[in-house]
Amino acid sequence: MKDDNIYYSVGALLYCPANKESISRAVINEKLGRNYSLALCLEDTINDDFVEEAEKIMVNSLQKIFENKDSYTFFLPKIFVRVRERSQISRIMKMLGDAQAIISGFIIPKFIPETADEYIDEIIKVNEEYGRTIYMMPILESQTMIDLRTRYDILYTIKDKLKRIEPLVLNIRVGGNDLCKMFGFRRHSSESIHDIKPVSNIFSDIVTVFGLDYVISGPVWEYFNGDNWDEGLKNEIAGDILCGFIGKTVIHPNQIEVVRNAYKVSLKDLQDANSILNWSKNSASLVAGSQAKERMNEYKTHCIWAEKIRILAEIYGVKQ
């Protein structure tokens, strides 16, 4: 597992069209709060004929945020750019000038073996050119993963290719809506994507392949108002956590605090985690009842779980 907090800290990743001119004011004035990361999207949210215009608007927004960060005190989120082609990565970094310093990384949609190497090369290039860590977050959402006859080969090929930049892969992300679209599925606010078996089975395979080495983030939840939207989101995140996801893509500010609170750990879990991680090396026994005397803690069985719990508690806090 990853042992650095940075990989678990993306949390609620708020997607925003790159051509939204009000985003700089929203960040500077903290209208989005202080507990989120930001993704500026140049792909699906932008009409193909307006990409160049969207790039210019986005660069202007980021330059405003950069210019104000030393003059005003405001929460500066991790900022990512979702590109639609490899060439945008270097081009956007150059267009930003000094403002490139506030870019945390790039999101790569529809990440597949055929284009993986060119994106990986580009990320290596900008890391070397700018002399700092610029992360990459590939999204696994391609239709090619549906075919059971080739799914495992595709996933393991992608993993093999990512190996050479593993420290730069902040998260693996999954495209829930893209996969649902191919089947014609759409869940209601009372339903969870984990109940849609053809899609959840793909997620399970992704976690099986990548989960030992990477942090994998949960799929988007598209409801932000109306009946049951927040309870539905909480329910889906509970399924996310149980299935091995950490963090979630969000599409509206209303969702941010729900996601943030859902990743707070329970006091009982933290107490058990600390007991496991502080286990005496001189102890003859590696099993003991929990502090609440409700379950059994086993050092060898639960140590990886305990490390994750402690990291999540440091980042997101403890439920009161």
Number of β-strand runs: 10
The amount of beta strand, in percent, is 15-25%
Number of domains: 2
Sheet bearing the most strands, described? 8 strands, parallel, barrel
**Could you name the CATH topology of the largest domain?**
TIM Barrel
Low-confidence blocks of residues: none
- Strands ordered across the widest β-sheet: 1-2-3-4-5-6-7-8
Structural class: alpha/beta
The rough form would be described as globular
Work out the radius of gyration: 20 Å
CATH superfamily placement of the largest domain? Phosphoenolpyruvate-binding domains
Main attributes of the structure:
TIM Barrel, two-stranded antiparallel ribbon, globular
Describe the model:
- The protein has 320 residues and is an alpha/beta fold.
- The chain has 2 domains: 5-262, Phosphoenolpyruvate-binding domains (TIM Barrel, Alpha-Beta Barrel), CATH 3.20.20; 267-316, no CATH class.
- 43% of the residues lie in helices and 15% in strands.
- The strands form 2 sheets. The chain has an 8-stranded parallel beta barrel with strand order 1-2-3-4-5-6-7-8, surrounded by 4 helices.
- A hairpin with a 6-residue loop joins strand 9 and strand 10 (296-298).
- Helix 10 (267-277) crosses helix 11 (299-316).
- The longest helix has 18 residues, at 51-68.
- It is globular.
- The chain starts with 11 loop residues before the first strand and ends with a helix.
